[in-house]
Amino acid sequence: MSSKVDIITGCSGQDGSLLTKYLLEQGRSVIGICRASSDLKNLNRLKILDNPRLSIIKLSNGLEYLDLFLEYNRIDNFFHFAGFSSVGKSFKFRNDAYQANLELPITIASSMLRANVEECTFWQASSAYIFNCDQPIDSDSLYRAFSPYASSKLKALKALKSVFENTSIEIVPIHWFNHSGSFSNENF
Question: What is the pLDDT of residue 187?
Answer without folding.
Answer: 54
